[in-house]
Amino acid sequence: MVKMLLMLLARRKVTAGDIASRYDISVRTVYRYIEELAVAGVPVDVVRGRYGGITIADTYRLPSGYFTKNEYTAVINALTAMESQVSDDATETALEKLRQQIKTENDDRSVSGSIIVDGGTWGDTKNFSDKMRVCERAVEESLCLDIDYISRSGEHSRRIIDPHVLIFKQNVWYVYAFCHTKQDWRTFKIGRIKSARFTGKTFEKKKITREDIPLNFRYRSDELVELKLEIDREKLPDVEEWLGIDNIEPRGNKFIAEISAPDDDGLISKILGFGGGVRVLSPAPLREKVIEAARKIIDTV
Question: The domain containing residue 250 runs over which residues?
């Protein structure tokens, strides 16, 4: 299975027949191993049809701890010395793969022009950075993506999308794309993409302006609430990062923010996350919802 995994990482798509022939096993055994890799959390998939095969998500890489930097260097040096003595196509190919892998391991950030985007988490799992890198490349090179997307309600869906624009709003990254599954334009939160792979196809990019993109995303005007908040001074830096400094003004010993925001459970959770340092002045129904949610938390403690 490890050999199969490395083969998939190198080629990204192979047929069951190729694997069976290379490792002298049956096709049935190949599919059994594929199922076991999937159970282990490796994003492998079987694509049916004439141009199908066994694929692995382009967002998936071996964990950075699989080889340390020193181990990569040692292996590369040994293979380089071997190649200088014996010319071998397999050795040359292995060297190229290892050099590419170490280059990728050391590149945790997406770069676009003069903008550097470090999408990694504080825990440095690099999963988000990998997805960001794939989406960025798809946008820049007009490459179709096959994504496994998890909606807010927890529903999984497979989508074929043509990514056109990356959007950063409220500290969240989105990709604006034409969705072939829904035959319509959609905005996908990159953090909710479980895995993504290049389909091998390209698309003709349409000219997109700011006015074409629904920056309220899935929210209609009747789903937004005019919000007035009172903020304690000690919570001001955190709220400024959430709402932006332009939406907050001092009034006496307090600070007031007035914004339009989606009226959903996410807003209530965000307000409660400030631990009493943010109070809802209006609207009254939202204030009551926050109070009710806080009481439920107290009851469960």
Answer: 221-300
